[in-house]
Input
Amino acid sequence: MISVLGKTESELIDSVLVDDLDEVSEWIKWTSKYINQLGIEQSWSLEEAQEQERGEQAQLQTKRGADAELLKNILKMKSNKLEQDQLSADQNDEQAGKLVKVKPAQIA
Output
């Protein structure tokens, strides 16, 4: 049996194993900390990208709504113009008809 500084071979092996396990445990804690930070940063980055995408979608939806409203107004204006043109044409036809009706009466 070997003895160093009052420790047996088995105690020395256990001591070395414990020290190695402590170092491995510390390394795992250290790397986990940075891995977790990286994961958090990635999730923040993903959240930022998703938020930006939602903002862009909202802008597109707003633009679509504005475009639809503009188109609706243009169509309404054209419809009103067509109605006015039709009314004017009807009035012109009516006046022309009166003139035609009046002329034969005036001739007689």
Q: What stands out?
A: Residues 32 and 38 are 10 Å apart (CA to CA). The longest strand covers residues 3-4. The mean pLDDT is 76.
